[in-house]
Amino acid sequence: MSKPIPAINRYKADLRELNFLLFEQFRLGEILGRGPFEAWGEEEVRTSLAECYRFVREVTGPLNSPADAQGCRLEGGKVITPPGFKEAWKQVYAAGWKGVGISAEYGGAGAPNSLHILVEELLSGSNVAFNMYPGLAYGASELIEVFGTHEQKELYCRRMFDGTWGGTMNLTEPQAGSDVGASTTTAKRNADGSYSIRGTKIFISGGDHDLAENIIHLVLARVEGSPAGTKGLTLFIVPKFRPNPDGSLGKFNDVTCGAIEHKMGINGSSTCVLNYGENDACIGWPVGGEEKINQGMPQMFRMMNGARIAVGIQSISVASTAYLNALEYAKDRKQGASITHWKDATAPRVSIIQHADVRRMLLDMKARVEGIRALAVKLAHHLDMVRVLEDEDAEKAAYHQGQVDLLVPLVKAYGSDQAFRVCELAIQTYGGAGYTRDYPVEQYCRDAKIFSIYEGTNHIQAMDLVGRKLGQAGGANLQAFLGDIAKFVATNSAHPVFGEAVKRVGAAQEALAGSAMKLLTWFQSGHMELVPLNANRFLEMISELTVSALLLEGAILADEKQKTVAAEHPDHAFYEGKKHTALYYARTVLPGVEVKAKQMLEEDRSALDIPDLAFATV
């Protein structure tokens, strides 16, 4: 019998880094107290982060490892979540952490997006499986808030925002994964204006659980007579229990959980097979009413965009705690003598952080974690500026929204790819110990693998980038992005410490611009097959360029700030770390942008030209 997993907190976060991004690099203080953020000041933001960190270390963090070991179970058609989850659900809502980003109209705090995503990082990093349940409820209720009828908003939003009811989104079917348009779930109109729903959905995160009294499913289905493909899909509100007009629960709505998937990670999150209408008694209502029939995909994309950002935050959160745990282990674990005494068998053993390759791994993890977090906060900053400027300056608000659209696939895809690599590197830092359940990094690695797959695989994100986002607004969003990079390079290329690294950013920007033109040429010349072959490569290029610029921007700021801090002050070392991190990334990762650009110019077709039978003779 295996030994039980102790209920201890292993989650770690660096609040100094979070506050640096908010108040020093992205200057959140300039918009606090303005417009939609009138109720927020710097002290409120800092206190919120500190209190949330305390909460997750005490409440959700200790449940992470036990929940991974115990998982969810299906009893009598109902999902039972791991011990402690029901209490944590009540506590996270009572403490207000799931209401930080919700508007005051629905009882929330209306915080800036920049703060909201960092609160979500703390919640996810401490227990990503648990936080998926309220996260899905938030996304579903936000969609109803945007697209629902007045009656739907009144009935569902507040109850979903405050945790009384949960929520999900349902796209995937056994025969329709990424090909959503192949959905066969049907909706037949009833005389009272409701619709009878029938079909099966798979891989539904939080599809059933015992945390909330009701679960509101958002289900894509095809109304009889609607067109084939995605244009004929409608989004329906399908509750587990039909609510009465006053919000009390009515009869069971014929939504059953057929199975729980047995997964590699996030075992505390129930990933369900849901059957709708097996007894012809499942009722749903179109989101937004009858006039929104066949508008399901545009509506669902609203939730999916939020979900994709959320996956990026999950990625950062797990990668960050994996790095910080590996760092702690490297400081404590003694193994081997210093390289300066490598011939002396009697030399004292040193902490492994003293070994060059371990230091390389630690700095690599630090750079990637801080880089993808800066990327996510940059996106959130643009979202905040949209909210501040939408009634003041439509042109500037449009610029910021354009940058949001461009950055979403980067945050999701690059963030999740790098998170898995950071977690793998954290295991390597531990050595054999990291491969055991005595330490948390093996779970982090298993949990992180799903991030590059769900909410649209990372290749889908890359195709969204090159097929849709680069051409949005006639290419103006990309041009504005490149212009921002060019301005940064022009301003800082003569910097006495970072000038050479900044010039490398300029070279990478030129390579990226050339590669964007190459994609356009393939589109226009009929060589479409080369676009998906290179889409992932291009997404990596633009992500690495952005991350390097952001790290250098932070390092230049840190260099100035460090001059005002005494050498013995903790901030002196913090700022020193920012400088080395940016230089490492610029010297070891950023050069890959130009290499990838040259690879695109090669137009290598090997993967296309190799015959199917030539992959293997088995």
Automatic annotation (TrEMBL):
Keywords: FAD, Flavoprotein, Oxidoreductase. It holds the Pfam family Acyl-CoA_dh_1. Residues 86-163 form the Acyl-CoA dehydrogenase/oxidase N-terminal domain. Residues 169-274 form the Acyl-CoA oxidase/dehydrogenase middle domain. Its cofactor is FAD. Gene3D superfamilies: Acyl-CoA dehydrogenase/oxidase, N-terminal domain, Butyryl-CoA Dehydrogenase, subunit A, domain 2, Butyryl-CoA Dehydrogenase, subunit A, domain 3. This is Acyl-CoA dehydrogenase.
